[in-house]
């Protein structure tokens, strides 16, 4: 089982802080190949040559906050054709007074990964790829032990769990990391729009596009927002 993880909103208190994971099944390698093929095709667009955001895309791959529309549009279309599940925990920071952002992020990774270990307890191994970012190296070293401890605490006993293998990667190493990046971007915009349900609002329409992939969206302040068992739609 492969998980691709990232965080969103870090360093920007005007945005919700999100830690998310995308789960890809047996076709994970095929999905990675499709994303790389799309990157290759889009990178050949001569009409965008010289555009700063396009040159960044050529060098670093897909990223929702910087990709031009000529790139983000085709990537979103590709996302509609592949199967994946997404899991996210989010905070508006009000529930954690006094905690530093680094502490919050680590807590959120531990919570989400421990729940995923339990969810996939019949798997032999979880391969977790976390996009590299400043400050994550120290957190990643502590994650395997802390995640297992939290999982045992949640289930109330020591029990067999999958082996958790965590690797920090660049977008160019595994372009599939862009999937959770785009999912979190849509969720963040919708949350900032106060969870609007007005079809005229683009943030709502964009959220509805990715909502079928959401297995869990949980707020530490407000509880479960959406899940496969209890979707909004």
Notable features of this structure?
single chain; alpha/beta; 43% helix
Topology at a glance:
Layout: E1 2-8, E2 17-24, H1 28-43, H2 52-60, H3 69-79, E3 85-91, H4 101-119, E4 125-131, H5 136-155, E5 163-169, H6 177-192, H7 202-210, E6 214-219, E7 223-227
Helix pairs in contact: 1-2, 1-3, 4-5, 6-7
Walk me through the structure.
- The protein has 233 residues and is of the alpha/beta class.
- It contains seven helices and seven strands, in the order E-E-H-H-H-E-H-E-H-E-H-H-E-E.
- The chain has a seven-stranded mixed beta sheet, sandwiched between helices.
- Strand 1 and strand 2 (17-24) form a beta hairpin.
- Helix 1 (28-43) packs antiparallel against helix 2.
- The longest helix is centred in the middle third of the chain and has 20 residues, at 136-155.
- The radius of gyration is 18 Å and the shape is globular.
- The mean pLDDT is 94.
Order of helices and strands: EEHHHEHEHEHHEE
Spatial sequence of strands, sheet with the most strands: 5-4-1-2-3-6-7
Question: How would you characterize the largest beta sheet?
Answer: 7 strands, mixed
Name the overall outline: globular
- Low-confidence stretches are none
> What's the Cα radius of gyration?
18 Å
Helical amount: 40-55%
Strand content: 15-25%
Number of strands: 7
Question: Helix/strand/pairing class, anyone?
Answer: alpha/beta
Mean pLDDT: 94
Annotation field: number of helices: 7
